[in-house]
Model the fold of this input.
Amino acid sequence: MDTSVRVFDDGAWISVGGDRAVGVADVWRLDAACCDCDRSDVLVEAFEKARREDSAVEARTVGRCLDCGASGRVGWVRVGRVGADGFAVAEQPERVE
Ligand SMILES: [Zn+2]
Done:
């Protein structure tokens, strides 16, 4: 199974194995790096890079905090995982260092 991970459409999508897997315009509850809010709802605006760390799929994400309005780099976010059945989107994406 091809499970290469990449960003395409100018950062609008992350593809896993050639399929659109995660798109912008989702709202994730995160400890974002773009502001000082602890956990806030972050609107995903773009993906800069994507990578695999073992089975985890992670994306360097740009977004906007809906609590304070700040926008910028959110940081790397674990967006899903590749398992025996293919890619599964995370129920709760988490920021990782
Ligand atoms: Zn904020």
Summary: The chain is about 0% helix and 65% strand. The pocket of zinc ion is lined by residues 35, 37, 40, 65, 67-68, 70 (CB under 6 Å).
